[in-house]
Amino acid sequence: MIRDQETLQLLLDSVRRFVREVLLPHEREVADTDQIPPAIVAQMRALGLFGLSLPEQYGGLALTMEEEVQVAFELAHASPAFRSLIGTNNGIGAMGIVLDGSDAQRARYLPRMASGELIGAFALTEPEAGSDAAALRTSAVRGHDADGDHYLLNGTKRYITNAPEAGLFTVMARTDAATPGAAGVSAFLVERDTPGLTLGKIDRKMGQRGAHTCDVIFENCRVPAANLIGREGAGFKTAMKVLDKGRLHIAAVCVGAAERMLDDALRYAIERRQFGQPIAEFQLVQAMLADSQTEIYAARSMVLDAARRRDDGHNIGTEAACCKLFASEMCGRVADRAVQILGGAGYMADYAAERFYRDVRLFRIFEGTSQVQQLVIARNMIKAAHA
């Protein structure tokens, strides 16, 4: 539960003001240039946004899950690119270290991640292993030389968020070729300047300009054995724990983005006049507004409930999948209604509705597609029924 409501409110007010006064005025610039201005990144560092969920002993704010999703609600009112830059440090880019890393690994990396000096990335997806993460082919072969124990990594990771900016990659690789599926997968920390690690060209995406992805290629990339997270064969378990938290965070982002789109659509409907009255007076427009508000309220309630359950120590694998599934699909429906309410204007790049319509489509794909969430939910239900 919330540990200090007054302190949290001060943080939320600061984030809300930062979104309104700094991020919103620069949305068009980020969309046009595909870059977040360095001055804004510096302000994000100063606000502590890169360390929201990292432990206090390493310079983070150590927010509870409930506190974190409330910050995500606010940040997501601006272009998703801004949230994406800080999101991996608070989620999949650092949580493997927080949850299963050694004391030495935490001391080496977390302070720089909390300050924003170091950007983290999570390298799981491959050209032939996305939703079927257990089928990954990137290999890690253990060896020993004059410099000590190490692993040689070989393989390619695809669509890795923040890879062009990242200084540290949490990499899932197969350490046991004889063991099929998830059991042979291990997690490694690989620094950007490690010989044998190269980056592909930045991907051209449908939306979310300013948030970058690219391939990460490993060719006999020598990683010290000390950079193994946990033990061999435990990487997939680490990944699943990381993704449970990440899915809940993305669900919160979907809620915030949907609130922004509905705010814009409502404002337009009140100001736009047809047949002598605001289109907000037309019942079919009101139906779209009401449906959107109802679904946003439902998604927000789900996210807060699941976050509180996680803070109370419960396993929220099923709840996180439910939140990710419902909130991302809801966000897509709100985006479609927002464009419909704006009509022709909603199809024009001059309005945020057009950009958000493209941006939020990704939410139904990454951190596990909607179809994967359905499988997770159903399989957990069946497992519980047999318990």
Automatic annotation (TrEMBL):
Residues 6-117 form the Acyl-CoA dehydrogenase/oxidase N-terminal domain. Signal peptide: none annotated. Pathway: Amino-acid degradation; L-valine degradation. Residues 233-381 form the Acyl-CoA dehydrogenase/oxidase C-terminal domain. Coiled coil: none annotated. GO terms for molecular function: acyl-CoA dehydrogenase activity; flavin adenine dinucleotide binding. Residues 121-221 form the Acyl-CoA oxidase/dehydrogenase middle domain. InterPro entries: Acyl-CoA_DH_CS (IPR006089), Acyl-CoA_Oxase/DH_mid-dom (IPR006091), Acyl-CoA_Oxase/DH_mid-dom_sf (IPR046373), AcylCo_DH-like_C (IPR036250), AcylCo_DH/oxidase_C (IPR009075), AcylCoA_DH/ox_N (IPR013786), AcylCoA_DH/ox_N_sf (IPR037069), AcylCoA_DH/oxidase_NM_dom_sf (IPR009100). Its cofactor is FAD. It comes from the Bacteria. Keywords: Branched-chain amino acid catabolism, FAD, Flavoprotein, Oxidoreductase. The keyword Flavoprotein applies. This is Acyl-CoA dehydrogenase family protein.
